[in-house]
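Limitations
The structure tokens in this dataset are predictions for the assembled complex, not deposited experimental models. Users should treat interface geometry with appropriate caution, especially where small molecules or nucleic acid strands are included. An illustrative entry is reproduced here so readers can see what is and is not provided.
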Amino acid sequence: MRLLSYILTVLLLVSCSANIPAEYSDLQEKVEVYPDYNGVFIPSNIAPLTFHIFTEAEDYVTAIKLGDRQIVVSGQSVVPDIDEWHELISEGGELVVEPYLKKGGKWYKGASWTMTVENSEIDQYLVYRLVSPGYILYADLSINQRDLTTWDENVIYDTRITSTEEKSQCINCHSFHNYNGGEFQFHARAALGGTVIVSGGTVNKVNLKTDSTMSAGVYPAWHPKDNLIAYSLNNTGQVFHTLDRNKVEVQDVASDMVLYDVEANTVYPVSIGTKEFECFPTWSPDGEWLYYSKADYNVAAQEGFEWDELRENYYKFKYNIVRRKFNLSDRSFGEEEMVLKADTMTSRYYREPGLSATLPRFSPDGKYLIVTLGSFGVFHIWHRDADIYQINTETGEGRYMDALNSSDVESYHSWSSNGKWMVVSSRREDGAYTRPYISYIDERGNAHKPFVLPQKNPLRNKQLQRSFNVPEFINTPVEVSPQDIAGRMKRDAQQAKFYR
Amino acid sequence: MNLKKLIHYLPYSLLWVVVVSMGVMLLLQHTDLLFRAQEKSLFLPTEQFFNDSTAQPGGWLTYASAFLTQFFYYPILGVVMLVALWSITVYLLAEGMKIERKLMGLLIFVPVSLYSVISQIGYSLFYIKLQGFLVVPTLALFVISVLLYISSILRGYWQSAFIALVALVAYPLMGAYGILAPLVMAVWSGGNKVINILIAIAATFVACMIFYYTHVTVMMSQMVYAALPSLYMAKGWQAIYMIPYLGIVIGLFLPLVSRVAVKDRVKMYFVSAVTLLSIGEVVGCNYNNNNFRRELKITKAMESGDWMRVLEVVDDNNKLYNPTRQIVFARNMALWRIGKLGDYAFSYMNETQKSKAPYDLSLPQICASQQYYYAGMPYLAYRWTMETSVSIGWSVENLKSFVKCAITMGDYRLALRYLDVLSQTKFHKDWADYYYSLAKNPTLIKEDTEIMWVRSLMRYRNSLEVENGNTSDNIFDYYARCDANDSNIQEFGMISAMIKRDHKLFFERLIQYVTLNSELVDMPKHYQEAALLMATLDGDEKMLNLPYSYEVKRTFEQFKKAYQSTEHLSSDEQAAILWQRFGRTYFYYYTLNRGII
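Predicted assembly:
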């Protein structure tokens, strides 16, 4: 038996070990790799950043060095051993990657590149919705939890467990309470619809649509200090461009804002029946202010407002960021205050003034408010000019986060719990499929070149015909099983009360 | 070979003749269907594709079937493969069931049903949500026959253990067929059959529960349907479509008759009855519709840019038939390409026929992406390609459509993304290579007449559309209102307004067309006919004074007289009489073709 294990160990070592060629020349051509990790900043606990070398060769060996340590990986797809990788990067420093390619029987060394390992960890889990980027029809959606320190991914909920193609279900807008995987919510629409709320170890399904509200809760924001969730209520429509690279326009026909008390199962009005369009609530870290996007579209103030008119004027919808003081003791809200008047800002892409700001999110220390800026509209994931914009809450100064932005869409964004990392939904690779890009944010609030979510199969981000939507960090895992959620999903929703 | 040996092998030989005949029938009747089914399937040798496939119950079966479906790129190759699998399956079933040679006809339901699963497809080709659906039942039955054969060799506890093992692992691999396999093995087992059946049921139940609690890709109530085709859009038709699948199950248990203690003569009568029933299945389940076949041929011709072939298929050796809207639309596209739209667009006796299917077809699922693309609307084509990919599944056909749309839209990064996927298929690398060259070097696009044609039509203003589900009507509306300064576009605009019988829009387009063609000597006859007819009906003196050709004016006068003289007849009788003389004029379409084409 010992002999057998010895033989197996030797075989394993022989089969896995790779050596840097003793003799080589410099390769003149550029080594084509995917993803591009050159110059990125990475957390000290991140899973191995795998990549694939596209440059044709007979054999491949890659050295990944940090200080006087290195790991050597063979193969066209460079997938370092996970333990060796963590050992290598645990203390931070500059990683140097050296590719060696064998061509015509000779070894060549390609140009090396570097990555900076920050002495800062990232939250262990990233939760996103995997969705085929369909327009109206949907199928096979899931909310997944990815362990960022490994390649492990598991399903929190998959629509296939409770629905069929005939009675299909859409899920969206997952949201967590203070990065806690034990407290979260998401919506299910169509078959078995309702808002699923996991809190205190129990799974509940509630119907937030009351006789006094236009819809169930849509975009959520969980209060940092209490079991309250602010929701925008949105009556949303979707239309298709016939000749525009944005392809799709998602518009609100009407929208309001409410506050939901999870324990009391009660909906409180915040802004109901107004002519304005409220959307994307978020709380200040101290829980004293509710921020949101709001559009004052003049036609909306008129009676007889028609969907066709809204559709024709889609580009005139400009959202600003506003806030209202919140009193936790009596759950009252103060007057609205303007935070970012985007509709008078000048675009860096167009001469015409007027922008639209959506998705406000605070850094955990409250120093920065991040929004997505586009030239118009509310649903920026379909707007190619959408970029991430940072407001310093102490100085009021704003700036585009250029290191984070690309020439294509950047839209949804979320902070890590330590405020050092930010994940952004980006369509920079092909303009259609959203991928999560993670960026280091330094002490001065500067973003650094982001890296795409690393995958065990480095080509997965190219091969997966689904988008990663609404990436959210959590630092404890979701432990409730999909089957438990499905079990509750199949029963009727508990009707929420409306506070009068 | 002596007579005894001949009699011994005769039943095998006859069954094999049946199997080969069905292969020949597939080739003769359904070649285009087989090719298209291959286009509507996808196999990728990637880890991602494997993981996505095998996450679902029966995923291994669909994965392997998708692999085999690729070979229908050459339908004869695919059919040879099917015939081989059917032949081996029948042989192994006969051996595994230990059926007397003379009663082998009892097995006929199996290959016949496997054939019928394919021959019945028809328009459900566009709705079946199951990768490799063409091959799934055949491959599943092949595996079941192998398992049955192995099981028949084993005895006693070994056989029971083998049945239990199969039951424990088969469901994740083969879905519904994984439930069927151990049951078949148990029913045909020697020894204690009841115990084996109970083992099969219990072990299958355990396997299903393990799958349910370790995977999240199937509802508990849907588990027994895994790896069967889902026809969710074809409401109410699922049951009819399932008849050959039922035939497969019956075919696996029917030979139990051979073990019933009755006289051989009775058994032979039974074999005869089964044979007759199987003939009934072949005939009854065969979807045989000429318009459907024409549509398949037309699509193939359009995709290869062979517009003359489109006209040839539509013409169908001058046969008089009632086409579907898809056929008429394709013909108009082809006529437009060759510059004959204004002379030949109207030649239909009746309004177009609905596609023959036992349920209401959703046409956008069938043809929206193609129609929008060739009508110069690649953004809407892209949208519908995405919708069908999401709802029905990814396919070679959709990937090609994505690529063409993306390149036409000038979105080269997106095109490269899909080309990266397509280039991994077995038979579509050359196609991908060509479009790679365009996406990587867009200056080459100007040499591609197909893309340049579509781009030349993209001269409309952007607008936001809400799809109402009727693609060709949307396109007609669009062109009838399109005021682009392009003669080509105005031609289709006129035809669109004429199809809609919209006077105002027709004259708007006509004026624009004439302005753009100030030196035009002979205006195509349909435009003259429409102008003369509509101006007469409107009493529009200005339009009545246009320089109509003598021939058009004469035909119009003759038509008026003929129309008035037949007004006492029913509309159908009147149409039938006037069709002979005026069927290829706009006058006939406007007044006697009751619908729109």
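Some entries come with short summary sentences. For this one: The helical segments of chain A are 2-16, 82-89, 307-312, 460-463, 482-489.
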